[in-house]
């Protein structure tokens, strides 16, 4: 969804292309991504982070991703992007969807009867807020997107909680 209130294909702008190239280069060299972006406002980094998390989660098996925003309305807006990505995937690659709530997409077979033989991706995408300093605690995540982390009231506590849920292994990104 654009600033002109239109729904258009997701085409990276030059600045976004540079960031994505850096992520893909690191992914290729190391097998994982660890990046922090210092940037100005409204240049599309949240869309890139959301797109990356969605791509990794909705098109790959056994991937858990979390997006953490500084406040609830922003978390809801980011999650709307993920749902829009899902709704606009081609039917040939759109994964089965077991759960779709205000904060959670689970890409799994919705049928209890056939889930054991045809499980689906067993991947999930969760959106949360930094208001909960224990966000991510007890979970295992492969992708973490910390949106507007400079605005977190308890940034150190949130980082300690959610970042400890991601191992430094191939296939992960922060």
Task: Please give a structural write-up.
The protein is α/β, with parallel strands linked by helices. About 30% of the residues lie in helices and about 15% in strands. The protein is built from four helices and five strands. It has helices at about 15-30, 45-60, 70-85, 155-165; strands at about 65-70, 100, 105, 125-130, 145. The chain has a five-stranded mixed beta sheet, with helices on one face. α2 crosses α3 (about 70-85).
H and E order: HHEHEEEEH
Overall geometry: globular
Major β-sheet profile: 5 strands, mixed
Q: Give the strand line-up of the largest sheet.
A: 2-3-4-1-5
Structural class given helices, strands, pairing?
A: alpha/beta
| Share of residues in helices | 25-40%
Q: Which regions are unreliable across 5 or more consecutive residues at pLDDT < 50?
A: none
Mean pLDDT: 91
Report the radius of gyration as a whole number of Å: 16 Å
Strand composition percent: 5-15%
Distance between the termini: 25 Å
Oligomer class: single chain
Helix count equals 4
Number of strands: 5
Quickly list its features:
13% strand; globular; 5-stranded mixed β-sheet; single chain; 174 residues
Summarize, please.
With 174 residues, this protein is of the alpha/beta class.
What is the element layout, followed by pairings?
Blueprint: H1 14-30, H2 45-58, E1 64-69, H3 72-87, E2 99-100, E3 104-107, E4 123-129, E5 143-146, H4 155-163
Parallel strand pairs: 1-4, 1-5
Antiparallel strand pairs: 2-3, 3-4
Helix pairs in contact: 2-3
């Amino acid at each position: 969804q654009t600033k002109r209130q239109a729904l258009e294909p997701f085409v990276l702008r030059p600045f976004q292309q540079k960031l994505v190239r850096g992520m893909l280069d690191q992914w290729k060299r190391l097998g994982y991504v660890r990046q922090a972006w210092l940037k100005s406002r409204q240049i599309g980094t949240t869309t890139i982070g959301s797109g990356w998390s969605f791509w990794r989660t909705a098109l790959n098996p056994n991937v858990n991703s979390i997006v953490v925003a500084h406040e609830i309305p922003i978390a809801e807006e980011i999650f709307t992007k993920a749902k829009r990505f899902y709704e606009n995937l081609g039917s040939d690659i759109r994964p089965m969807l077991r759960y779709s709530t205000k904060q959670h997409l689970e890409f799994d077979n919705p049928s209890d009867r056939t889930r054991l033989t045809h499980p689906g991706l067993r991947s999930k995408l969760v959106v949360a807020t930094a208001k909960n300093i224990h966000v991510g605690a007890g979970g295992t995540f492969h992708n973490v997107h910390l949106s507007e982390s400079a605005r977190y009231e308890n940034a150190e506590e949130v980082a300690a909680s959610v970042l400890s849920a991601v191992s430094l292994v191939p296939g992960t990104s922060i």
